[in-house]
Amino acid sequence: MFCFSELSFSDIALALEKAIKKPPVIWLSGQSCGGCTFSFFNSTNPSISEIILDLLSIRFLSQLTSDAGEDAFKIFTQTREKVKEKYYLLIDGSIPLNGKYCSFGELNGREIFLIDLVKEVAREAKAILAVGTCASYGGIPKSGPTRAEGVQEILDKKVINIPGCPPHPDWIVGTLVNLFLVGSVELDFYQRPKLFYSSLVHQSCPRRSLFEEGKFLTDWNNSRQKDWCLLLKGCKGIATSSDCPARGWNDNLNWCIKANAPCAGCTEPRFYKDFSPLYEEISGIPIPFFKRIGVSTDSIGEVVAGAGGVGLGIHFIRRVLKKRLKNKGKR
Length: 331
Ligand code: FSX
What we know:
- Helix content is 35%, strand content 11%.
- It has helices spanning 9-20, 35-41, 48-55, 69-82, 114-122, 133-137, 169-182, 194-197, 208-213, 244-247, 287-292, 299-307, 313-329; strands at residues 24-29, 57-61, 88-92, 95-96, 103-107, 110-113, 127-131, 148-149, 160-162.
- It has a five-stranded parallel beta sheet, sandwiched between helices.
């Protein structure tokens, strides 16, 4: 007798996929805190249940799938052999190049490591998405002992990066939907979809006018400074591309700067190592960076232009800002 509860998550996914022609997805995880998948589960529009039941056929995602070990390997084989339309491969977490880490399990007596599994599964994938900053550029684990790198480092095929620590659920779902509908997404220099990462946080920051006025928060306990620009408290929004100011988080309830926390710069390749300590003023941003991302019309561009070119860089900007601070602090 047929018993629904005897079916695994992947069996149900395959059945639904055949019935309503949903695009198949395999999602693998590397070195991470798990935040990227949980951010994905927090999607509100569409909700995660709509995504799982109506939008995607998720064949494997460790937090959802009960299959492990040899059963999990079977899903990959089955997906490759039985699914006529090619699958989408999503990977969160970084890939340790040091072979001792991220063992996926044993197959025919041989231990399989994530790096080999990703290479294998990526071969026939229709598109590959690196979900989160760890998967995109190495992220926080890059500072550790495992020689962690982003997915692109180990593949010859193009990888679409969806950085963020974690990435906004809309960035993940929106990129997938765009791929389904249009077949491609336009990417920036760091292989991020322009749809979500084309402007600096600084450009639309609600505290931007305070920045322009030279009002920089220096004392967390000074209530007079409570809405002031957080640049000197380590805000990386000036060098970070994302649409967080407009999109907000948790169904647009809040986001870092609205919660009075500096932008950590988590969508950038230099996060975390080169952007730490988080609460310290940003340094070492070369002039070509600003030129490349085309911030020629805002005050940074003006300051840089005024500085007369490469060589003065962020140190000059900092000097100018400190001077402005000194003057405005007297107000
Ligand atoms: Fe990294 Fe994601 Fe940050 Fe965490 O999977 S991007 S540490 S939110 O979980 O990989």
